[in-house]
Design a protein that fits this description.
Structural class: mainly alpha
Strand content: under 5%
Order of helices and strands: HHHHHHHHHHHHHHHHHHHEEHH
CATH architecture: Up-down Bundle
Radius of gyration: 22 Å
Oligomer: single chain
Low-confidence stretches: none
Number of helices: 21
Strand order of the largest sheet: 1-2
Distance between the termini: 27 Å
Largest sheet: 2 strands, antiparallel
């Protein structure tokens, strides 16, 4: 290639495999955002407190932590394609387990189904992210990953649409009377049991349909020839890769930043429903604000992918983290709809973060990227335990969202101090990327 000619982001020779693997980004985005509203839904149907309901996210994102390293081992030992096939099998299994979970009406079984479903997502993310980066020149790897990740919000928007249209809009446990009080809480035990059975069935159906669709994707990817970077027989093992990558500050900082970023994202997208409910907006209508957040996130992803051509990725990461801190402060200290709008705008700042942290952390690792990718996916565990911490703040004065005031604002507002702190850590990583790592 001539020196003055830039390498293409995606070459024609890998266009079909690139499209198929990119579709997986939408597929796990769908799972993420059909599940976020389930925290509030399960809370009402099963009459849980905020901390108990937050275990939905603990189960969902805990699966990433559990399975990411085994996924890296399988990918390193076999191939990217094999890792994706394993992931799709586990994804479908978890989704289809919603059928027996509904029959048993057991909250633990639902959590187990989500846990297994995310075993599959861990395989897909551990495999697909470095696979996309490997489909071309290393110079354009971060741009290519940002392009693929741009389709993740499309899946997320689809997940929200299904949640709003086929789940939240059909839940009887969410019905209120003319005074805005819950009807479900006033029912007799027999009537409440009937509503519980009906509502759990409403939740079940989209997940079972999703499981069937994932099986179709499994068949398609199984029969299509995919490019593979064959493992050198003399290449070092997984443990040697792990020892080597943990000596690199850029990578270790990326893992920590990714953990706090994902925690911030999941808190902002999970508790936007509780924030809206405190303003008198029911769950079905609160989805409209989640739509707006994802729409802004999607637009930001494409815009920031373009801006990466002109601005150092670390510098842009730092600037967006600083802006996220400003919007989080608005969500905390500005009560009313303006605070909600500020919370929605945080999503613009988050649009760049995941793929850029990922790309910075993996830069220059070569074949060690397979092992490194596993730890970056394990970092998604931030989305498991941080929502629980936010749920504990919400439960300080009771199961409501404005039982007490902290620093002069309702506890639901104050709880967003957690994502604010996370963005501070991301901003520091961005600063070190363009001030230290880029010059190293």
């Amino acid at each position: 290639m001539p020196e003055n000619q830039k390498a293409p982001v995606v070459s024609k020779s890998v266009l079909v495999p690139f499209i198929l693997i990119t579709s997986l980004f939408a597929l796990w985005g769908f799972a993420n955002d059909i599940t976020n509203p389930m925290v509030s839904a399960f809370k009402k149907i099963l009459e849980l407190n905020n901390t108990q309901a937050s275990w939905v996210q603990a189960a969902f994102y805990g699966g990433y932590f559990t399975m990411a390293l085994p996924a890296a081992y399988i990918v390193k030992k076999y191939s990217y394609k094999r890792g994706i096939i394993f992931g799709l099998v586990l994804y479908a299994t978890g989704a289809l387990l919603f059928f027996p979970a509904t029959a048993m009406e057991n909250y633990f079984f639902f959590l187990l189904a989500l846990y297994i479903l995310t075993f599959g997502l861990a395989f897909l993310e551990t495999t697909a992210n470095p696979y996309i980066m490997a489909m071309g020149d290393e110079e354009t790897a971060t741009q290519r990953l940002n392009l693929a990740q741009a389709f993740n919000p499309l899946g997320a928007l689809s997940g929200l649409f299904v949640a709003q249209t086929f789940i939240l809009g059909a839940l009887q446990s969410d019905d209120v009377d003319a005074n805005g009080n819950s009807i479900y809480e006033t029912l007799s035990e027999t009537a409440k049991a009937a509503v519980k059975t009906s509502d759990l069935t409403v939740i079940r159906n989209p997940y079972v349909a999703l499981g069937i669709f994932v099986l179709v994707m499994l068949v398609v990817i199984s029969v299509v020839k995919m490019p593979e970077k064959k493992e050198d027989k003399n290449s070092v093992g997984l443990w040697d890769s792990i020892k080597r990558i943990f000596k690199k500050e850029r990578f270790v900082g990326g893992v920590l930043s990714q953990m706090f970023y994902v925690g911030a994202q999941i808190m902002c997208w999970t508790y936007i429903y509780q924030y809206a409910e405190n303003l008198g907006i029911d769950n079905r209508n609160a989805v409209n604000y989640a739509y707006a957040a994802l729409g802004i996130f999607l637009a930001g992803r494409f815009l920031c992918t373009y801006l990466l051509k002109f601005i150092n990725s670390g510098k842009l990461l730092m600037l967006l983290a600083m802006l996220a801190i400003v919007f989080c402060s608005g969500a905390i200290f500005i009560e009313g709809m303006t605070g909600l709008y500020s919370l929605v705008m945080v999503s613009f700042c988050m649009s760049l973060m995941f793929p850029t942290i990922y790309g910075i952390a993996l830069n220059g690792l070569g074949d060690d990227a397979k092992a490194a990718s596993a730890f970056l996916v394990m970092a998604i565990v931030g989305g498991a335990f941080m929502p629980i911490l936010q749920g504990l703040i919400l439960d300080i004065g009771g199961s409501g969202y404005a039982d007490v005031r902290i620093l002069g604002v309702p506890e639901v507002n104050f709880s967003f101090v957690l994502p604010l702190s996370c963005f501070l850590i991301v901003g520091i990583y961005g600063y070190r990327t363009f001030k230290v790592y880029s010059k190293a």
